[in-house]
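Shapes recur. One chain:

:::
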Amino acid sequence: MRISVIVPAFNEEKLIGETLRRIQLAQVAFSRRNWDVELIVCDNNSSDRTSEVARAAGATVVFEPVNQIARARNKGAEAALGDWLVFVDADSHPSAELFAELAARIESGGCMAGGSTIRLDGHHRGGDAVTWVWNRVSRTLSWFAGSFIFCEAPAFRKIGGFNNELFASEEIDLSRRLKRLARAERKKIAILHRHPIVTSPRKLHLYTGREYFGFLTRTVFSGGRTLRDQGSCFTWYDGRR
């Protein structure tokens, strides 16, 4: 069994080193099973030392010139040789326990894909409330959080990977398409919840509630057209770090 861990990264030199260190520590859950693991970082047209830091940490680095999360994840998947693909965001830290829970799902033989509930690093009243709501929605609807997604490589390629037309919510779109395929092939989608992935709360400090509310309002009233416009999805692409 080979696992490919893919990390999309845009100007992440401050966080990518620690993220890769945490992933490498968590990989013990796979090595105990004598599984091979490859670590791939997709540099999504960074202007900082992201690639240099990733290579120094032992990761294979690929480059995606179009600044878009969906394309970065797809580029990483193109280079992957694993039987299973695991996508981890550059500001998120999986634990050995989370990887062990994932490995158990793989070994069960009935799971096609899935994600994990999330926990913010530290305590943030507003952010914790939003996270609690998201985790309930995620488990109810089997929607993946972009910070942690796993999938059988053949299934990922069968549906064409992430939608390159979307600059945000591409993980939800992927969830829906994989759910349809899983039903057709009589397999399961799993949202792991015993050991949530820990993710950075930095966007709570970088953007105001007014900015988030404005984006959500425009998205609702445009019927989702903002999700196909990079400029509208500024919290992902304006480079604030």
